[in-house]
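Internal tracking record. Fields below are filled automatically when a chain is submitted to the structure queue. Please do not edit lines marked as system-generated. If the sequence contains nonstandard residues, flag them in the REMARKS field before resubmitting.
Queue: standard
Priority: normal
Entity type: single polypeptide chain
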Amino acid sequence: MKTAVDAFIERNRLLEQGQTVLIAVSGGPDSMALLHYFKTIREPWGLSLIAASVDHGLRGAASIEDLTFVKEICKKWNIDFVGTSVDVPAYKKQHNLNTQEAARILRYQFFQEEMNKKRAGILVLGHHGDDQAETMMMRLVRGTTPGGLTGIPVTRDFAGGKIIRPFLGVTKEEILAYCKEHHIHPREDHSNKDTTYTRNYFRHKILPLMKAENPKLNKHLWKLSQDLKEDEEYLQQQAEQLLEKVAVFEKDKKNISFSVSEFNTFPIALQRRAFHLILNYLYDGNSEDFSYIHEQQFFDFLTRDIANGKLDWPGGLWLQRNYGKITFHFNSAYKPASYSSELGIGDTYRLPDGSELSVKLTTCTKKEDKYTLTCDMTHVELPLIVRTRRPGDRMTWKGLNGSRKIKDIFIDQKVPKEARDSWPILTDRNGKILWLVGLKKSTACSGETSGEVLEVNYSQPKEDR
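SYSTEM-GENERATED OUTPUT FOLLOWS
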């Protein structure tokens, strides 16, 4: 086994000369074999070794004895030791977690603290080939992405250094044989036989059946995980480039939006990975609450012929579609405040989004555009009023037979739902709608001029110019 692990470390460039290495040791066969293996390579690699052990407080005196056992072995093998006891039941209750997840969080917190204290660049874990097979099969049964089938990574960043798993290329059987060969007598954790835990069920019930059918199952799954990993790394790079081209990131709000038509020009394989990259960004890499069901909802949103829609997702995330635009955001609870203000000649009103409406009296009318309204003084009653929409608002304009609801105009003009409640409407003193700003102008301002003309100008926020 040692020869195989030596080659695995060299091939994957897991170590460098002279590093300080923290080794996670529980006292079981996997971690004890790992600790012994690193003892044998300590001098050739010039390594400083530290064994780290955690009592999770789940098995009473037995787990404390495990801690003591590891400490004594480290003394015998001349390896530095650090240990701690944590209260998993209390943490589990406080944070509403299952036992294994609570234990994992507290364990890794301790490892991170010790890596920082000891300035260790490497944390070594004893996951092996059988663990890899169990993980891949569990994810397959539960439902996962192609990236999930890459299994347990050989290495990943952690606490300013990295985690390595040099035993992923060997089997549990080989580890047990190694322990026997080197007269290592590990502790036994009876909870590892409890099949109420999902992983133990797969370990003791599912994998043996599959290995009976194909004794080389571990090797095949390892080869599959590595092939998928290489493919996934390339596709992830392409998905990152996709987002760079089409997505708009609002970092202060942690919002992401993109054009549906642009997004749809890319292959579905990249779209899927871009979706998961977005979730990782929004949730800081902690998007476990999402499943393939959310992915299906996303693609339904992307392809369905709808103008507007919204989905409420885990952690307060909202997925929103407004015509040709999709937005991921956390601020769905925000509702723009309504407003109403009088405008006299010479006044300027600043709208909530930073844009402005200004009013002046002139005798020379300039050519109107979408941001300018001119109206003969004889056709309006001052003061003007700028306000948000109200139930029943209607207006008419040149060429329209009758009047039309403001709500319907918004729909026709494809104004996003979240923008409608703050959109400025200009009326005269009697409530007659003169201008749905930037969209429609009323017939109330058409006709011959008497000489004095009211000119209203709309200017966008300076940052949008």
